[in-house]
Amino acid sequence: MRHNISVRVNDRLYEEEVEPRLLLPYFLRENVGLTGTHVGCVIGECGACTILLDGKLVKSCLLFAAQADGKSILTVEGLGQNGSLHPVQEAFIEHYGLQCGYCTPGMVLAAYYLLSKNPDPSEAEIRVGLAGNLCMCTGYVQIVEAVKAAANRMRQA
Amino acid sequence: MVNFEYFEPKTLEEACALLEEHGDEARVIAGGTALIIMMRQHLLNPRVVISLANIPDFDSVRFDARDGLRIGAGARHRDIELAKPVREHYPLLHETFSKVAQPRIRNMGTIGGNLCQGDPLTDPGASLITLDAEITLLHSDGKRVLPLEQFFLDYYQTDLRPGEILTEIHAPPPSPGMRWAHIKFLPRSQEDFATVGVALTLRVKGGLCEDIRLALNSVAPTIVRARKAEGILRGRRPEEHLVREMAEVAATETDPMDDNRGSAEYKRELVRVLVRRAVDQALKRSGSGEQTGRDASTRL
Predict the structure, then answer these.
(1) Does B293 map to a domain?
(2) Which of B102, B189, B295 to mutate to test binding with chain A, by most A CBs within 10 Å of its CB?
(3) Residue B296, in any domain of the structure
(4) Residue B201 CA to chain centroid, in angstroms?
(5) B191 to chain A: which residues are within 8 Å by CB?
(6) B136 within some domain
(7) ipTM of the complex
(8) A42/B contact by beta carbon, under 8 A
(9) Same structural domain, B153 and B95
(10) Between chains, do A63 and B108 touch, taking CB under 8 Å as contact?
(11) Which fold has domain A87-156?
């Protein structure tokens, strides 16, 4: 019971034979070798495994790798360009939008997706946009500050 | 998770044939947001998983002024929320779908999967019932069309029969002057299930209440239509004492459970309060297809 898939991850094509039961975050971490996609609750609650699948924000733990066949994925590793960080990542660092860092890749991708749809969100819109990502450390205040700062920076760029 | 064989049929006929062939050992996967969790928890251990992802046009959302709205069962909550005909002609559905979980789950879960799971805590079924929605169930022997209201049988149990696939949801054209309300009470965070959900449609003609439909989620083993409560207002002036009586009757039509979203008693009390509020909100609407006032959410 194996299944052939071909998935584009951060603009590189990966062709692999996988077990149908393999969940997508494990495929990304173990087959592709990109460990930025974190495995948290694995029941679709915490958001640590968030990725973009064909441009849509999703929780990868609720997908089999087989379901990603023929699709394009963006993980946190694909955000920066030419060795420099994405403005969202820079803003998270500058505003201390993290402590332990476990939720951070998911938070960063959720923020990136939010700002791509809504470049000038209100604080309430930021909070709704990040709903579905749990952070046990920060109390969210600095994460929201970071997203606001990233929005400002990206609008000026 | 127990391993399984994975199929991606390219037509519904092929999918039905696979279901027929593998019987009880097979499960259909659409978005996966419910099935994968159940498989991880070993509540379901299918030997065969049949994905509907490659069925062409299975996620379409189409509107025709005479026929109404036809939603392919593979349409994701987000597709329905943002579809132009839904925003223009079915503001109740736009609002309801915009409140389901959060965008990440709406980008994944499908309406067909949602209805077939038969989870009484979810929102779409109640609103679709108040619009007199029907569903189409396809089997290799033929298809049947069923009012959605009759589909929910018990806790996580629907009238989906062996070998059947839910293919389409149909809502009739919006009736002129329809007023509506949707209230989802959330005790905790945005993505939680409702403690109580209330969907309501009605029309007022010559001061009298017509075509009233009230459906509730999270208050019984299934999503329920509160017919006795509807009957209190039907054909009468929506005066305050009748609205109170209606809310009281709605509370008796429910059978909530104690859980971490509230006690059964608390949920009944919420039904009393929220049904009254829903009637007030519906009566305050102009009765034409108006903006929902939640445009911000659609930009997320």
Answers:
(1) no
(2) B102
(3) no
(4) 14
(5) 45, 131-132
(6) yes
(7) 0.92
(8) yes
(9) yes
(10) yes
(11) DNA polymerase; domain 1 (1.10.150)
The total number of structural domains in chain B stands at 3
**B75 and B45 share one domain:** no
B-chain residues near A58 (CB < 8 A): 104, 107-108
pLDDT in single tens digits along all 300 residues of chain B: 899 999 999 999 999 999 999 999 999 999 999 999 999 999 999 999 999 999 999 999 999 999 999 999 999 999 999 999 999 999 999 999 999 998 999 999 999 999 999 999 999 999 999 999 999 999 999 999 999 999 999 999 999 999 999 999 999 999 889 999 999 999 888 788 999 999 999 999 999 999 999 999 999 999 999 999 999 999 999 999 999 999 999 999 999 999 999 999 999 999 999 999 999 999 998 755 444 444 434 444
| Residue B232 and residue B160 share a domain | no
> Rounded CA gap, B254 and B194, in Å?
15
How big is chain B by its Cα radius of gyration, in Å?
19
Instruction: For residue B104, give its domain range.
Output: 61-171
CB-based burial of residue B205 (10 Å sphere; 0-12 exposed, 13-18 middle, 19+ buried)?
A: exposed
DSSP letters, B61-82, are EEEETTTEEEEETT-BHHHHHH
Question: Looking at beta carbons, which residues of chain B come within 8 Å of A114?
Answer: 300
Q: Residue type at A151?
A: A
Rounded distance between C-alpha atoms, residue A42 and residue B254, angstroms: 33
Q: Any idea what the CATH number is for the domain that residue B33 is in?
A: 3.30.43.10
User: Are B152 and B132 contacting, i.e. CB atoms less than 8 angstroms apart?
Assistant: no
Q: Tell me, what CATH number does B153's domain have?
A: 3.30.465.10
Residue A129 contacts B, CB cutoff 8 Å: yes
Domain assignment present for residue B291? The answer is no
CATH class, A3-78 region: alpha beta
What are the tokens at B20?
A: 């027929």
**Pairing mode of beta strands B48-51, B26-29:** parallel
Are B218 and B258 members of one domain?
Answer: yes
Question: Is B161 an interface residue toward A (CB < 8 Å)?
Answer: no
- Coil, strand, or helix at residue B175? coil
Torsion of CA A92, A97, A100, A103, to 10 degrees: -80
Q: Which of B130, B191, B140, B192 is nearest to B167 (CA)?
A: B140
**C-alpha span between A51 and A113 (Å, rounded):** 10
Domain range summary for chain A, segments of one domain joined by +: 3-78, 87-156
Same fold, A3-78 and A87-156: no
Q: Are B244 and B199 contained in the same domain?
A: yes
The CA distance from B97 to B122, in Å, is 10
